[in-house]
Amino acid sequence: MTVCEYKPGLEGIPAAQSSISYVDGKQGILEYRGIRIEELATKSTFLETAYLLIWGELPTKEELKAFETEIRYHRRIKYRIQDMMKCFPETGHPMDALQASAAALGLFYSKRALPAPSYIREAVVRLLAKIPTMVAAFKLMRKGNNPVKPNDNLDYSANFLYMLTEQEPDPLESHVFDVCLTLHAEHTINASTFSAMVTASTLTDPYAVIASAVGTLAGPLHGGANEEVISMLEEIGSVENVRPYLEDCLLRKAKIMGFGHRVYKVKDPRATILQNLAEQLFDKFGSDKYYEIALELEQAVEEKLGYKGIYANVDFYSGLVYRKLGIPTDLFTPIFAIARVAGWLAHWNEQLGENRIFRPTQIYTGDHNVAYVPIQERT
Ligand code: ACO
C-alpha cells in the first residue's frame, strides 16, 4: 500500500471521483454537471437544477412537470413530526431543530439497504419537499404559533417564503430566493457533503445522510459565515467607518467575514450573481444602509487584500439578500441547508453507484504497552 503524505483536514487529497460539480478557483468557475452557474442562475430554477444534479441531466418538460408535481404533493409533514417539533425548546438553534426533524423523517420512511430506484426517487422527493416546511414550521412554532400549511398554488420558493412570512411574496422576491437556492445547491466535496458521503457509504437511510450533513453544515467554519457578515456590517454602522474598521481588523489580524475562500482566489462567481440580485431587490424595495457599507467594504478589502487572493465569497451578499426578504438571521444557515439538500442527495445517489464504505487510515501518535495503574495508586 502506498503511504501518502498526511494532510490535516485531508486538504487537497482526492476522496472520491465525481461528475456532479466542478470548481476552478483560479478562474472563478463553478459548473453543475458541466453547466456554468451563471447560465443556471439566469435560465433554470432550483428544482430543475436539483433534478440535474441528482440525475445527471436536465429534465424534459414532462419530467420536470412530474417532479414538481410530486414535490408539491409531498410538502406537508406528519402531525406527529409537528407534535415532536412543538417540544423543541424555543431558544434552540433552527439548525438543531432541522437536524432532529430530518432524522425523524427516517422513523417513518427509513430503509437501510441498497435501495431500489423507486425508493431513491421517493426519498429525493420527500426530502426536497419537506425540509423547507420543517424550517418554516420551527420558525413559527418557537414563537408559539401554528405552522402555515403549504400553499398548493405557489411554486417551491414562493411557497417557502409564504410559509415563513405568512404572506404571498412579490414575484421578484421569490425569483431572487429561488436563484439563491440554485447558487447554494452544490459545491464539490466540502465538509457537509463529505459527511453525507461517509454516512451514505454505510448504506444507512437517506434521512440519516441528510441529518449528518445538516449537523456538519451547522458549524461556524462552514455554514454560519453569512450570519456573521450581518453582525459585522451592523458593527461597522456607517460608510465612513468602513476603512477605520478594516484597518483595525488588519492590525489585529482578524478575518473579515464574507471574504476569502479555500478554493476561490478571485471573486466567487456566486457573489457576483448575488450582488446583482441584491441590487434588483434594493432598486425595487428601497436601499439599505448596510448595502452601501457592504459596497464600500468590498472595495476597501479588494485594495488591501486582493493581492493575497482575498475577495468576496458567496456569504458576503447572501445575508443582505435574506435580510431584505425579511428572513431572521438564524435561519440563514437552514436556508443554505434547504438548497444544499439537492447536492447532498446527488452525492448520496452517486455514492450508491459504486459504493465502498469509507475507512481511511490514521497515523497513531500514542504510546504502546502502557501498564494499567490501579485507581488507588494513581496520583
Ligand atoms: N480577512 C482577512 N484576511 C484573510 C481572510 C479574511 N476573510 N481570509 C484569509 N485571509 C488571509 C489570512 O490571514 C492569511 O494571511 P497570511 O498568509 O498573511 O497569514 C491568508 O489570507 C490565507 O488565509 P487562510 O486562512 O490560510 O486561507 P484559507 O484558505 O484557509 O481560508 C477561509 C479560507 C476559512 C474561508 C477564510 O478566508 C475565512 O476565514 N474567511 C472568513 C469567513 C468566511 O467568509 N467564511 C465563508 C467561506 S464560504 C463558505 O464556506 C460557503
TrEMBL record:
Pathway entry: Carbohydrate metabolism; tricarboxylic acid cycle
Active site, UniProt feature: 261, 315
One Pfam assignment: Citrate_synt
CC terms in the record's Gene Ontology section: cytosol
Keywords tagged on the record: Transferase, Tricarboxylic acid cycle
Keyword Transferase: yes
Gene3D superfamilies (UniProt xref): Citrate Synthase, domain 1 (1.10.580.10), Cytochrome P450-Terp, domain 2 (1.10.230.10)
GO MF assignments: citrate synthase activity
UniProt catalytic activity: oxaloacetate + acetyl-CoA + H2O = citrate + CoA + H(+)
Gene Ontology BP, a term: tricarboxylic acid cycle
NCBIfam families associated with the record: cit_synth_II (TIGR01800), PRK14036.1 (NF010639)
Family: Belongs to the citrate synthase family.
PANTHER family with a match to the protein in the record: CITRATE SYNTHASE, CITRATE SYNTHASE, PEROXISOMAL
Name of protein: Citrate synthase
